[in-house]
Design goal:
Strand content: 15-25%
Largest sheet: 3 strands, antiparallel
Protein name: PH domain-containing protein
Shape: elongated
Number of helices: 5
Number of domains: 2
InterPro entries: STM3941-like
Oligomer: single chain
Keywords: Membrane, Transmembrane, Transmembrane helix
Helix content: 40-55%
Radius of gyration: 21 Å
Number of strands: 6
Order of helices and strands: HHEEEEEHHEH
Length: 165
């Protein structure tokens, strides 16, 4: 449902962009505060940015996929790897709240990190310097809550990993 709401919001910005470039007629205003060229440029920027987002969110809404799965074998995190991350490869888990966003932070072995995408590997050091651990997941864009995620991790992960949760 959230994907459809985001698609509708993005489509609204595309419609505003179309209005600004004059597709629906002249966008004339007697009290213009900006030069004549600002509205078309803002319109095209809106279309170029929000147009693809509309289709991405529609695709995500029409083709829902598993994003996170916690089992007794490990964690499946689609944004990180197409494979389950075995608990043996996890080195540390922590729960963290930054400005109202709850996240599960984790650290994995270097061998496991090689299975992650380029961006995930490169951003690990920056994440460590700002929040303590290399990676984090947020489940507020799924149909589960952070509390449910923690409950699953606490019940299925090895005890040595759950001491900071």
């Amino acid at each position: 449902m959230r994907s459809f709401a985001l698609a509708a919001l993005s489509a609204g910005f595309v419609a505003i962009g179309l209005l600004l470039i004059g597709v629906f007629g002249d966008f004339a205003s007697e009290s213009r505060r900006f030069p004549e060229w600002v509205a078309p440029v803002a319109g095209w920027l809106s279309i170029v940015f929000f147009g693809p987002l509309t289709f991405v969110h529609l695709w995500a809404g029409l083709n829902p996929r598993l994003a996170v799965r916690i089992t007794d074998q490990g964690m499946f995190l689609r944004n990180f790897s197409a494979e389950t991350i075995p608990w043996a490869d996890a080195q540390e888990l922590r729960s963290l709240n930054i400005m109202g966003t709850s996240m599960l932070q984790f650290e994995v072995t270097d061998e496991r990190m090689e299975h992650f995408g380029w961006f995930r590997r490169k951003s690990a050091e920056i994440n460590r310097s700002t929040s303590g651990l290399a990676h984090s997941i947020v489940v507020n864009n799924t149909n589960r809550s952070h509390a449910e995620l923690l409950e699953a991790v606490l019940s299925l992960a090895p005890p040595q990993l759950t001491r900071y949760l």
